[in-house]
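Whether sequence alone determines local backbone shape is best considered at the level of individual chains. We regard such an encoding as a compact summary of how the chain folds. The sequence in question and its structure tokens are set out directly beneath this paragraph.
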Amino acid sequence: MPPHLMTLADLSANQINRVLHHSYHLKLISQPWLAPQFANKPTQLRMPSQSLFNKSIALLFSKRSTRTRLAAETAATLLGGRALFLGKEDIQLGVNESVRDSARVIGGMCQGIFARVGDHSEIEELAEHSPVPVLNALSSLWHPTQILADLLTLHEHAHLFDKSLEPTKPSQKLLPHLQTLHPLPPLTIAYVGDSANVLHDMLVTYPRLGHSLRVASPDKPMYRAPTAVWDRVKELKCDEKIWWGTDPREAVKGADVVVTDTWISMGQEAEYAQRVADFAGYQVTEEMCREGGANPDWKFMHCLPRKPHEVDDEVFYGPRSLVFPEADNRKWTIMALFDLLFGKWNVFEHGGAHRYFVSQKNDDKPRPPTKSGKTAPPNKSTPTKSS
């Protein structure tokens, strides 16, 4: 059975950190001109892992995409592979052909599947029958690659939250976020808006990494996280670090980071008027965060695309915004997952791994005797160093 990744709940905290460090490593070696130590030596370019050489990755997108598609196609190319884009006009899972049959056919011709689907059950069924690894690019329940990009962005800007990490040398001040991937201090992260896939992966991830999560959404069932999400939250003991209410000003109290998302997702256009009315007062502004008591140096994040009613221009384009570095990091975190999941299959530590990420490729069969005549220990995968 190949390894699949549906949500960050399927990874341990150590595995998540491993992906982040590998993402950062790939970012630096892929564009060394950004790093001060390589500023005058562009010939020192080190090619990233070519783990996808002669491999094809199927991009199954039943929804429109800008950042995810660009990130996936460029990431596959840098790893020596080829991304084959199949949009909803090319393939409709479960419409002209069953998901089970599609999984077998695509998996027989490609070495990995990166799927952006509608209902989460589609990607679950795809993974169940696929002979190759399946990575969730987005589903109705989860959006793991977005939260990895958010985390990488926060780590790169750790000096904004911990003044002891402030760069001192001139070269460090030039590009402070490209020195080293510092650990994050415990943060208070506020989410103001709809309870959708981005928030769901935040709920099962941030508390395990030591951060507190404060959420505000309208008091209606349609804006609450579904039972399937809360089951994972409780299973991972994340609920102790989560506060949930309906007042956005109360949610941003003490916040180091304020996050929002679209109020009207694809397929919800008919609900536009109702949703805009329900989210009245939820627009992220300087005034709202000041009145709510956010940290004076709070930063802002949004997964994009953004509409002005979600966050005003002053915040979105201002010095608090980490939105565009966040978007750029979609490429490097997706590239790391492609390398580790599609290229190498089983390089993650198994400690704390959840149901999907443990490959059965490595078994416990004893190895041949060593020269000393002793039987070697069972075959255990050893994580490779990413940097």
